[in-house]
Each structure stands twice: as structure tokens, then as C-alpha cells.
């Protein structure tokens, strides 16, 4: 079971634990949200992506993002005593560019502040919109791989009306 006890997303958004019944939604979400970037990085073949998804599908590590009763996204977060790692965040295209991703990341930053640990992530080099979002939220590149930028936020979240209630 994932630890989401500190993570609060505010009005209208919540997280729930994924189950085996979410498999089709989560693969469809991955296809819609990430195909462009996966295609540009490694290439996309449907059978290969379905097999990779099947092999790596662990519902206990995934939280489904719910907006007003509708599943709209998913995220994975690894919580260790020394850091939080945002493994993945995917939001349906119809719900992107509405500040939802920012709310999720700000909530994770607030959790990291409470725990006094950094929040780290990797972003595909082929996804400049996501990288720009993370930079706006205070992440800085600390290294890179062939395919990803490795980023970390270590400073405190700037208190805003949205984040003050989370801290």
C-alpha cells in the first residue's frame, strides 16, 4: 500500500490506490499522455508497449488521480527516508494545461518540506513542456542520461494560498 497520508491535493482532486481493475485505464492513459515522447525517444510499437506495461504493472505502487469522481491521471512516488522520487505523472490530455500537474507537484514539494527531504524526478529530453513545468516549480537539473534529465528540488515551497494549507 502506498503512503499518501501527507499528500493533499486540495478541492476537487484526490488520489486513490490503483487496483487490477485499473489496468486498461492506466495503459490507455499511458498511450494518450506519453506516446509522442516515447515514440521520439525509443519508438513506439503497440505490442512492445503492452508487454512492457504488463511486466511492470504493480497497482500497489500507483495512485490514480481523480477529479470530481472521474479518473484523469496517475502517479507513482517512491518515498524513502532520504528523498521522495516522482517516478511518473500522467494526466489525460483533456485535463492537461489546467494547473492539475502543478497542484500535484506542489503537494509533493510540500510533503518533501514536511519530511525535510528533496524531491527528485527524471523527465524525458523529448518532453520540453514537462521540463519547463518542473523548472517553474523550482527543480534544477542535477545530471542527465542519454534519454532523461535528472532534476531535484531542495528548497522550500514558496507559500501561496494553494500551498499554505498543505504544509
Could you characterize the architecture of this molecule?
This protein is α+β, with helices and mostly antiparallel strands and 167 residues long. It has a single domain (13-158), classed as Aminopeptidase. The protein is 35% helix and 27% strand. The chain has a 7-stranded mixed β-sheet, with helices on both faces. A hairpin with a 3-residue loop joins strand 6 (140-144) and strand 7. The chain is globular, with a radius of gyration of 15 Å. The two termini are 23 Å apart.
List the helices and strands and how they pair.
Blueprint: E1 13-17, H1 23-41, H2 46-56, E2 63-67, E3 70-79, E4 84-91, H3 100-115, E5 119-124, H4 128-136, E6 140-144, E7 148-153, H5 161-164
Parallel strand pairs: 4-5
Antiparallel strand pairs: 1-2, 2-3, 3-4, 5-7, 6-7
At the fourth level of CATH, the homologous superfamily is Gcn5-related N-acetyltransferase (GNAT)
Q: Quickly give the structural class.
A: alpha+beta
Total helical segments: 5
CATH architecture: 3-Layer(aba) Sandwich
Low-confidence sequence ranges: 159-167
